[in-house]
Design brief:
By secondary structure, this protein is mainly α. The protein has one domain. The protein has 9 helices and no strands. α5 crosses α6, α7 crosses α8 and α7 crosses α9. The longest helix has 47 residues. The relative contact order is 0.14. About 6% of the residues have low confidence.
Length: 273
């Protein structure tokens, strides 16, 4: 069976279109990972300010996005970040459906569920960027009142303990991921030694912070004090209040900054499937 010239031409056009689409997808994923890195570096900067005397600093995702919005290119940057994060949502959803085909089934299934969780995180960050870009801002009142309601009844307390356990478990998983360098599966050629080192430090630091958040949720539930529950800013303020707190917070902030730099390298060497 012979291939006609028209068939060959059509095949070449399809191949070129697929290559072009692949490049566009790769660029969007890289943009998203760079956005993720910028948010982590902004969190690092705010955590360092908190550690050394700026008590009004708010070192969490919303605070980081607010900080980035104050730069000279803030309004444009917010839209670029939003596009990047929503591109990551799409990428992670695709991976959750049919990604990691080279892995054996148990680990492939775990990675796909993990990708679904990542999609939720990226979507949350994308929404925060959009809200800031259009001037909607943010409000934590609804979250605090929800915690108040849950703490005040037994089913709600059980739910909060379950959330605390899940968050703590995610923190442990991040630390294990950093120690065992399993994140190298997400890098082309496994990444270089410098990039892997940044990833190790970053994942371990993020894991410690997430574990503290889980502990704070459990403690807030146990003590019937909803104000002690919270995200990164509450975790960082708790660390600061400990003996040698500013030093400990500085070390943790630098670790999270390492993850930001890892994201920049990840943007160059990410795997798309």
């Amino acid at each position: 069976m012979h291939t006609t010239g028209s068939d060959a031409g059509a095949s070449a056009k399809r191949a070129a279109a697929e290559a072009g689409n692949s490049r566009i997808i790769g660029v969007l994923i890289s943009l998203g990972l760079i956005s993720f890195g910028l948010v982590h570096l902004a969190v690092t900067w705010l955590a360092l300010q908190l550690a050394w005397g700026h008590s009004s600093a708010k070192p969490n995702q919303q605070g980081a996005i607010d900080e980035l919005s104050q730069t000279p290119v803030g309004p444009v940057l917010l839209w670029i970040l939003a596009i990047g994060f929503f591109a990551l949502v799409l990428w992670r959803l695709i991976l959750a459906i049919r990604g990691f085909g080279w892995m054996r089934r148990p680990r492939r299934t775990a990675k796909r569920w993990g990708s679904l969780g990542h999609a939720v995180v990226y979507g949350f960050l994308g929404v925060l960027c959009l809200r800031s870009a259009v001037g909607a801002g943010s409000s934590s009142g609804g979250g605090r009142s929800m915690t108040d309601r849950l703490v005040s009844n037994t089913p709600g307390q059980i739910l909060l303990y379950a959330v605390a356990a899940a968050v703590f478990g995610i923190g442990v998983q991040q630390i294990v991921k950093g120690i065992r360098t399993t994140f190298r599966d997400e890098l082309q050629d496994g990444g270089g030694p410098v990039l892997v080192t940044f990833g190790q430090i970053g994942y371990i630091a993020k894991g410690i912070a997430v574990m503290i958040i889980g502990v704070m949720i459990a403690w807030a539930t146990f003590s019937h004090h909803p104000g002690r529950a919270g995200g990164l800013d509450v975790a960082f303020r708790t660390i600061k209040d400990q003996p040698f707190g500013p030093v400990l917070l500085t070390v943790l902030a630098v670790g999270i900054g390492c993850f930001g730099f890892y994201c920049f390298g990840w943007a160059r060497r990410h795997r798309t499937s």
